[in-house]
Structures are given as structure tokens and as C-alpha cells.
Amino acid sequence: MSNNAETINNSNDWYKWVEEAISKKHIKYYEIENFSNIQEIGSGGFAKVYSANWKNSHKCYAIKSFFNINDATVKAIFREVQLQREVDFHDNVIRFYGVTTSIKENQRKEYSLVIEYAENGTLRKYLKENFENLTWNDKYNLAFQLVYAVSCLHDEGIVHPLNNVLIHRDTVKLADFGLSKRIEETSNSQSKVFGMIPYTDPKIFIRKRNRNNNQTEVYSLNKKSDV
Ligand SMILES: Nc1ncnc2c1ncn2[C@@H]1O[C@H](COP(=O)(O)OP(=O)(O)OP(=O)(O)O)[C@@H](O)[C@H]1O
Predict the structure, then answer these.
(1) Model ipTM?
(2) How far, in Å, from the CA of 59 to the mean position of ligand 1?
(3) From the centroid of its chain, how far is CA 40?
(4) Binding of ATP: at which residues (predicted)?
């Protein structure tokens, strides 16, 4: 796989890259027909996400199907795949398993991502529904996992906007690396708002040079604890 983020400029590059990666077995291809019990579980600005069982087993996967794979979105999708694969050895990061063809009826073959399924959904929803029943130890444990995951991503040179924090049983899982950046990139793009506004360090809005961008993520973490 010779392409890097700079060489994926349009949807043709993306299709070529995925097909080459599948044929060289760098990425596993899952036949969509082998999934059963496909259920929609959520959607965001770019994609719809489904849960599905593999070959009638109890093993559940999440399938992320993009609304519109065009020249503008392929870079984010490619980034998501690249960054997630780099760090998904970590227990607190959603695993990238491979690709399948899109669930949509379409003339053109469209690839969807097959990723680990987080059974309890988003941390936000989980806390809303369970906050009263959680002990301080449970809350400490969730906060600890979140901080630990962020710290491990920093060690790998990646900043995650913490826009998508999921829960699988008692384990925090960071997902959706489409908006994540390498630390050196964030230092060069001070003017760009990074992540969700409520969790964004206000200092990012005033163009202050030489601000360490890991710090903006620490701000996001503190805001998360307000949930
Ligand atoms: N692996 C997963 N397991 C369980 N639910 C998930 C998973 N991935 C995503 N979801 C659910 O689907 C929703 C949409 O997913 P996601 O945020 O990745 O889509 P997106 O279009 O890239 O979103 P965004 O607009 O935030 O970039 C999430 O908020 C979450 O509720």
C-alpha cells in the first residue's frame, strides 16, 4: 500500500487503494451477505452506523456506511482508516476489522467500514441513563480509561477530538478518527476549529501561536467531566 494521506485526492484513488489493500490482504474483506440481523444504531454527519451479526453467530460488528463518498470526503475516510489502524491495538480504541460493500442499493460498489461494536453506545447517553447507579469507583474508572487512552494516543502522535466516545460493557472506546489529527498537523492549523464546539478549548478561537495542541484535548477532557 504505497498511498498515504497526501495521495488520496479523490474517490478514484480511494477505490484503487481499498481494492489493492484487499487483494494484497492488508485489509480483510467481509461479504455483506454473511452478515445477519442488520440494525441501524446511529448516524452522524458523514455516515450511518449499523450493528450486525457475523454468519448467525453471536459476534456483533458495527458497519459504518458513508452517505456520500465523494472527492471531498474520501480524505477523511482514509484518515479514519489509517489512524484507527495505527492505534487500535489499544483496549480503549474501537478496532478496525476491515471493509464490506455498502448496504445501499447502488450502481457503484461502495465500501463501508467494519469495526468493533460498542454495545452500550455513546458515553454521553450511557452517563445520562446510568449516572445515578454508578458508584464513585465506576466514575473514576471511566475517567481513568479516558485519560489513559488520550495519553496513549498522544504517545503515538495523534490528537482525537473526543467527539465520539463509546462504551462497551465497562470499557471506554474512542471511535471515529475522521477528525483526528497528527500532533504536528494541529500545530500548523491553529485557525481551524478542531472537534465539537462545547468541548473546544476557547483559546483555539484566538489565534495564539505556539500553543501545544495536546493541551486543547486536556480541556476537552475536563469539559467531558461536566456531563
Ligand atoms: N462502533 C460503534 N458501536 C456502536 N455504536 C456506534 C459505533 N460507531 C458509531 N456508533 C453510533 O453511531 C453514531 C454515528 O457514528 P459516527 O459518529 O462515527 O458517524 P459520523 O458520520 O462519522 O459522525 P460525525 O458527524 O460525528 O463525524 C455515533 O454517535 C454512535 O451513536
Answers:
(1) 0.94
(2) 19
(3) 17
(4) 64
